Here is the input.
Amino acid sequence: MVRATVFSPRSRTETTTGTLVMGIMARSPKSSLRNSRFDPMKTDIVMPEMLAPVVPPSDTFNPSTDSLHAAMRPIIMLAQCFSMFPVCGVNKPDASYLRFTWRNPKILYTLISFLGVSLVSIGNILRLFLSGLNSTKMTTFVFYVTAMVTTIMFVRLAMQWPCLALTWEKLEREFTSRHRRISKTTLAIRFKIVTAVVMLLALVEHSAAVLSAYISAIECAAYRGETDVVGTYFQSQFPQIFTIISYSLWKGIMVESINILSTFSWNFVDLFLILISIALADQFRQLNSRLYSIRGKAMPEWWWAEARSDYNHLATLTRRVDCHISSIVLLSFATDLYFICIQLLFSFNPIRGIVRKIYFCFSFGFLLARTTAVSLYAASVHDESRLPAPILYSVSGSSYSNEVSRFLTQVTTDNISLTGMKFFSVTRGLVLTVAGTIVTYELVLVQFNSVQQVDQSNITNVCESFQMY
Here is the structure.
């Protein structure tokens, strides 16, 4: 006797649905999904379409246009025009061509520039011993010593840059398959815009300094009855050189060239930190965009493991970058803090002429703006690294897993930021700390330097020294 089995439409539907669900779970590339509990009554469960990327990926990664190497290419070439960052292979399509070698004309150019700055610094030291110490002479000395140290730091960075850029490019290539581009403008365009703004303002500031000094040279030449205004300009602008050696026009041009290279390096330090901070924050921003796109949805454990792995890669990259540039961060904040205090100190002196007043106000404002920009852009790396926390806090109980817990622990406890050789971390709170430090140091400088203030309304004092740095 054969027993007939009758399947009702409902039972066939349930069987088919169960088979479909089990088949999807079996075919999933993530083994952890097999252990997930599936409840058809949960409305926040994401169905098979969740296995595809939630955020549409970017186009195919092209290292010649989409990488940090491509974005930094024109900036590094600009730096090399001023004897900085002597790395080879910058014009190549990707970071694998980058290399550093001592047998390189760029290194020779850098060494010649370093030798020139060193000679000027030695002249400053001799001047300090021969004529005594005051705030103006000390500021000039600090300016050229900073240029020397900057050159050394960027030579060291050039030695490490090929490996760092290649590591960054590999991470960018991997992220392209999962993360979409947030900004409509590419990283290279943003770098060019920021560089153009900073360098243009630096050019205006330096031109105003030269114009102010030349006006003072005209007044001094008339006061002394001299006809060589250019000679008066060079001798008054660089007394640390022309009180030791005799003046000639070609020597004056050489020293002025060294001064231009030093001024560029001083500005380039802040520009470089701004650009690196923008690039790092952009990587975190792409990951955060992917996380915010699944807010309110229940994702499987393998998805959170993948997101946590991406975050961990970015944290590792940030630490590696910080290891290479933390000394540059410390130098930037130290010199900017010093020059802000000195400019505030000089502001207590009477300033003759509208041109000098405009130059002083513009120079001081540009210095404040540059320091603030470095602080905020560098702090944005830390800010972006904290943004996944609200998403992780809002994960529903049905999809909460060990990966979510580990991810949340790392985000809330790991301090991901740029540092000044581990002495301080660059966060938004640092801006207020720097402001308070400036006020404190300024009060000390005013008390100890009150006897050294120079009356700029006196033409004799102006002829003795009208150099800021």
Summary: Residues 109 and 324 are 23 Å apart (CA to CA).
